[in-house]
Structure formats: structure tokens, C-alpha cells
Amino acid sequence: MPAPPLGRLARAAACLTALLAGGCGVGGGQIPDTRFFVIDYLVPAAPQAGQALPVTVGVESFRSDAVYRTDRMVYRKVPYRVDFYPYERWGARPDEFVTDRLLDHLEASRRFKEVVRASGGAASDYLVRGRVKRFEEVGSPNGKFSALAQVEIFLVERRSGKVLLQRQLSHSAEAKSQPPQGFVEAMAESLKNLLSEAAGQIAEAIARHNGGARP
User: The CATH number of 36-209 is which of 1.10.238.10, 3.40.50.2000, 3.40.50.10610, 3.40.50.620?
Assistant: First the structure.
């Protein structure tokens, strides 16, 4: 086979160089920077209503269903398909956000002697476990979208291993501005309401287990 002309080789080399640099007429342009978002809201301390229960509550690191074990932001337009934002990421995985914020809610409730992170090896009387089931943007036919958070929680007495509470909680909040910022703000609102409810149910279950005294 005859060797290709030098001009053709030179042009191919130049095109390859331009392609690597984002040119050569194939959708060139600079790749957008990846942006990272966090769920970080203030949980105000509840008014002290009586004496706190003399117990320590430990919170295990939450787990996630497979699709949410990532920092990629998930959105869903139809029930059986998920997509991901191309250049936007969470600053941590959803299960990490949920664990951190639930600790905040339980501490701010002022209903317990102490709230600790169970993964640190601290002793506790009760253990909270959980799994993130949904953590995503959901679109609708009218063009609006919302943030859906859904978690499953378990409350276990450490000494006996008895499950005192098992709940699947979900909350959805409609976005008030365009994504991704609107989605992030809606997810913060959704998660705040969901975990406030979870903390309340955990406190009531522990109070019942301690003789029915309301904390």
C-alpha cells in the first residue's frame, strides 16, 4: 500500500491536536467547571420543655439505595428512568447529608442527655439507623419541578436489640427558582421538614420506652 501523502498526515496530526484542545469543528469549546452544592441549614434549638431524658442516642451513618451512592445529582422525569446533572455535584453523598442533618435535629431538640455519632465508637442507650430511598429532582408535565427526599429509619434499643420504631418518611418541596439552585434550595426545605418529623417520632418512641414520660 502506498504511503499517504505528507500533506494528509500533517493535516490529520493538526486536527488531532486541535481535537484534544477542543477544536477541529466538532463541538469545540471549553468544558464547564464542575460546581458543588451542599445541604447546610440552621436547626434552631427548641425551647427547653422539662428535663431531658437521661439517655444517650447514637446515630449510625445512613446507607443509600444504589442509585444515590454517589455525589452526582439525580433527576427523574418518568418513573422508571433516572438521569444525572452533567456538571453539578453534591458536596457529599446524600446519605452523609442525611446523617449530619439528623444529628443536628436530634441535638437541637434538647430532649436527650446526649446525641452522638455511633460510628465514633461512643456508647449509647439507643441507636438510630437508616437508609436513603429517594433524593432527587422530580419533573412534572407542567414544567415545574420539585425535590423529593425519602428515608427509612429504625430506632433500636442497644441492650436488647429490640426495634422500637420503623418508619419510611418522605417529603417533597416545589422549587421556587430554576435548577440547579432552585433544586438545591427545595431539597434543603424538603430534608429539613422530613428530618424534623423523624426527630420528633424518635423522641416520642424513646419517651414511651422510658415509661411514657414526654421529654
Answer: 3.40.50.10610
pLDDT digits (tens, 9 = 90+) for 19-78: 334 444 445 578 999 999 999 999 999 887 778 999 999 999 999 999 999 999 999 998
Mean pLDDT of the chain: 88
Q: Concatenated DSSP letters for the chain?
A: -PPPPHHHHHHHHHHHHHHHTT-TTSS-SPPPPPEEE------PPPP--SPPEEEEEEEPPPEE-GGGSSSEEEEEEETTEEEEEEEEEESS-HHHHHHHHHHHHHHHHT-EEEEEEGGGT---SEEEEEEEEEEEEEE-TTS-EEEEEEEEEEEEETTT--EEEEEEEEEEEE-SS-TTHHHHHHHHHHHHHHHHHHHHHHHHHHHHHTTS---
pTM comes to 0.84
**Residue 209 in this model has a pLDDT that exceeds 70:** yes
